[in-house]
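Input sequence (487 aa), recorded before submission:
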Amino acid sequence: MKTEGQTPATQAAIPAGDGGELHQQAQSAGEQLTTNQGVPISDNQNSLKAGARGPVLLQDFILREKIMHFDHERIPERVVHARGSAAHGFFECLESCADITSAAFLQRAGDRTPVFTRFSTVAGNKGSFDVARDVRGFAVKFYTQEGNFDLVGNNIPVFFIQDAIKFPDLIHAAKQDPDREFPQAQTAHDTFWDYISLTPESLHMIMWIMSDRAIPRSYRMMEGFGVHTFRLVNADGASTFVKFHWRPKLGMQSVVWDEAVKINGADPDFHRRDLWEAIEGGDFPEWEFCLQTFTQEQADSFDFDVLDATKVIPEEIIPLRVVGRMVLDRNPDNFFAETEQVAFCAANVVPGIDFTNDPLLQGRLFSYLDTQLKRLGGPNFHQIPINQPKCPFHNLQRDGHMQMGVPKGQVNYEPSSLGADIARESAENGYRTFPASEAGEQLRVRPESFADHYTQARMFLASQTAPEQNHIVSALVFELSKCVNPP
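Predicted structure, token format:
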């Protein structure tokens, strides 16, 4: 395959071996094929053998290294969001948010922050099709001057469950049946609908997932949401609640189910191809970044709980404030190194952004890091280039699998009087958790304020046009018709 800047070798210039195989030759030392140890390779077409037709010799270190590396190329796929597509870009602050947060990347209009954004389906495996009826992941890594901030969201503003303890059961039910390993990338089977029928809190999300929102026309025409209520903290220590929104400049567009089925058969990479080709062609996708901010007093006045991830805050009550924009303007150089190895984590925040007691969010703060330790092989995955902060970072963490740095000096701890130049804490600039007052008994209970599962589901259905409502009904009929034992 020809890549930019390379001149393809002509057939006439390529020498052939005794068996007719071709041996392309390096034209300079910089083009030489080598082993992982830097040893130049003289023949990459034939194993070392005892005679031309003899057995292959175990001492062939070139063969062993090549096969060994190939055998270990695959890493565990993500337990959810396995199939994805990503791009580089920038975030530009359009309006200072100093009144509500001390986060540096939101202080000055015009400031730009590099980002890497990954879109994904949720239920399907890496080899599944793009235009499935599914939630879409919408994860953005901001490489800010204060560290990485990961906004790990979806294209739907609510979720199926209210507490993270239910997440393994939800995903087990939604994925392929364990005895037969199908259906792939869809929820039209007994286990999912059995679970949903016994999980009334999921009703609002079911309205969304059965709607056209679950089969977007393009990643470029898809909204994004942080889902949870977060907390912003300004330089004076004052707190404001927030929900994060992304609004596509192209508008929100979907396909209908019959189109989705045909697209998946004709081009299972439809969304990937669309995003890649748009960026390659200079048609850079763009989103507005919006904040929905409210006080504790406003939260107390709502007829729902802002810690409940199955609820939205209607924009009629709390309008959106457009404070920035994101533009994706460069495709990845290597899918595996960047799109596959990128590690988003809901716990990655910067000063000025904090968490709330949302029980689903609290579980996510643990789960992402835990899965990445397994998927990426150890605790040093933050040293992979796509995951590294672009600001300086210093700590006293040492060793572990795939340590890629070379820490120097005698001291790997603090406090210490021996190392004058070791990293130390910063009371002035360091991250400070908002000092929320918490008190209560240790209980496994759900608050009564989480109990209304029907009002917002009904509101969403009523907000849809007549054709959109018909699509929801048709989707439910299709899904339930695939169940052998419908609920």
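Checked by second reader. DSSP finds eleven helices and ten strands in the chain.
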